[in-house]
Amino acid sequence: MGNSSSRRNNHHHHQPPQPQQPQTTTGQHSLTAPSQYPNPYPPSGYPPPPPLPAHNLHRYPPGTAPPLPACVEQQKTVMIKHDVNIKKDGIRVAEDDQNPGKFLLSFNFDATAPGSITVVFFGKEDVGCSNLVATKESMLKPVTVSFEQGLHQIFKQPSGTGIDFSAFDKEELTKENDTGVFPLVIKAEVCLSKNDGSEDSPISNSLISLAVFGKKENGEYLVRVVKQILWADGEMYELKEIYGIGNSLDVESDENDIGKECVICLCEQRDTAVLPCRHMCMCGGCAQVLQFQSKRCPICRQPVEGLLKIKVNDETSG
């Protein structure tokens, strides 16, 4: 009994160490341990910004910010006087009544001054100037017809100067070849006297239409204009059609007509076209916002490479 009692008395119970209490001294500042639950907000009192998503952390190196969106190029139109105009959708080809098997051209045009129209089959532009080169002049000679000043004029190719489609392959008639030769080239040219009264040679402005032929299901031949080039004051311009500009320039229509307002805000008049698709569908304000958002055309969803601002209804103001 005594042995067991002595063993109980000699057994020591180990207690966990107690945390050391900070010592305080009268008249001195006391140091305290940090709290187990720190203040969730910084000294400013506002919560910290949320962390970046994981995909952004992997996308941009640490310590760097995402790049700012690049602005698309903006251009403004320049007014150029167009002294002669051929309505490309109205070019027709019909068989010559006096020479069966040969076909003649006809179309409508407007001119602010006298001039001439030259028709060249299988022709191309001379490099660096507005002259035309006939590559098959031995078979089809160029035809030149003079005209006077006036609107809504009609051009008809003289009888006996038409083209025989059966003498050429289909690819020759329907495509531009590798050397830049088009099956049909039409040049409308006007000569203008200089306003300064000098005796120098007059200014020559011209419109060149490069076209190919086609054939309908009913056997009728047609003309499709591929490109139109304008020469004005010695400078060359390639004409591009702007889709939707017709409604914006329609002066006689009501202001509430559908098609004149911006397709985004639906209140301002459209005056900006998207490049390269050439859809004129926005106002200037919405076009500015588009640069920092989708950067896609609201009509066809193609990427936006540039914006073209067009001044419309200039004649109606005043």
UniProtKB/TrEMBL annotation:
Keywords: Lipoprotein, Metal-binding, Myristate, Transferase, Ubl conjugation pathway, Zinc, Zinc-finger. The keyword Disulfide bond does not apply. Residues 21-36 have a biased composition (Low complexity). Residues 1-69 are annotated as: Disordered. Pathway: Protein modification; protein ubiquitination. GO terms for biological process: protein ubiquitination. It catalyses: S-ubiquitinyl-[E2 ubiquitin-conjugating enzyme]-L-cysteine + [acceptor protein]-L-lysine = [E2 ubiquitin-conjugating enzyme]-L-cysteine + N(6)-ubiquitinyl-[acceptor protein]-L-lysine. InterPro entries: LOG2-like_mRING_C3HC5, MGRN1/RNF157-like, MGRN1/RNF157-like_N, Znf_RING, Znf_RING/FYVE/PHD. Residues 37-53 have a biased composition (Pro residues). The keyword Zinc applies. Coiled coil: none annotated. It comes from the Eukaryota. Its EC number is 2.3.2.27. Residues 262-301 form the RING-type domain. Belongs to the RING-type zinc finger family. LOG2 subfamily. This is RING-type E3 ubiquitin transferase. It comes from Turnera subulata.
